[in-house]
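User: Here's a chain of 472 residues. Predict its fold as tokens.
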Amino acid sequence: MSKDDDFRIEKDSMGDMRVPRDALYGAQTQRAVENFPISNLRFPREFIRAMGLIKLSAARANMDLGQLDRKIGESIVNAAEEVVDGKLDSQFVLDIFQTGSGTSTNMNANEVISNRAIQLLGGVVGSKKPVHPNDHVNMGQSSNDVIPTAMHVAALEAIERSLIPALRKLQLALEAKAAEFDPIVKIGRTHLQDATPVRLGQEFGGYARQVELGIRRLEKLRDTLGELPLGGTAVGTGINTDPAFPPATIDHLSKITGLQFTEALNHFEAQGGKDAIVEASGALKTIAVSLTKIANDIRWLGSGPRCGIGEIILPETQPGSSIMPGKVNPVIAESVLMVAAQVIGNDAAITIGGQAGVFELNVMMPVMAHNLLESIRLLASSADNFTDKCISGVAADVQRCNEMIEKSLAMCTALAPEIGYDQAAAIAKESYQTGKTVREIALDKKIIPADRLKEILDPMRMTMPGIAAKGE
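Assistant: Prediction complete.
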């Protein structure tokens, strides 16, 4: 077979194109392959699935409305189902950095589904007969409403199916540790300095609440991501589409996914701006910030094992050094920190992308879609891994917690209401200078009866609101 036999000739509005003979995509996709050799980054599986869902639902709606021949429509549905299932992923070959509307990727989907439908009907790939990529697969649609619709569908599915379950699992693991560690009193820290005691369970309860609130922020996105731009076509006016097409297609999408989607109340907002995507990314960034705080606390609390804080013991996952034998590092927490950094960086690009809504169209949708879906995927996998390989196996070093409590100068805070701030401060300074504990100096000075001192300096008492002495 000659080299020329490896290709077929197809035409688009700009002329002839050589397309790989075995490819299901066509001329417009091939032209974009040649025009955008930028990064080798591709749309992720979630987005390709969403594109298949939209084309499938659109074909069903067009058949329901009598706009599309049933034989052609069913072939489109069958081909689109293969896209949804990932069977044709190798045919989605375009770089993320392409036309800002994602037109090339919409045509990639149209051509692949058209040619696969032609195959299923026994026709010739590339002939556009009897299934045309524009006239049939893209019927009632425009890249300008399909691509943002796919962004919403893919993001909401990934959040609901992957991220929320992973975060809920982490929340429950943290709540379990909060209950387990509730009896354990340890020193609190503000400004990285000793502060009044807290219970280890209170710290872990705070982490659990951070994750819970992150989930709530994601749940609020159901309203905004649930509004789909489909039906606005080119500029938001809905030209070349049946007014009944958007709700009919969206109804099919809702039934297939089990999620609640509705038509955008204002198509000019939905296509000219990408505020819902920016908002979603903001929620992901907030979760990344929460996970950063939690992961940092975990690795600091577990620092040591001899010369650090060492109030908790982290699961040993792998050797930590190529030169220091026996060293074990908090690598799972570190991986969470790196994911959080990536998500925050992705959010910056999405924010800039959101500013690229000019008149009736945003022209940075592909990179926004890529970054948003990457952030969702990274947060879900890292939260899941954090739960399994770190949080679930965390143990408390009760002896260490007790030792550090007794040595802390902050114990004198509870004395202030009894003896005054200045005298309590003097005891703290003497404790620091002599190496004696606050309790020992207070007993030596006999400023408070021993029984009362024992009550005041009870660390557990200090962690209970309304009982402990108040102070800053």
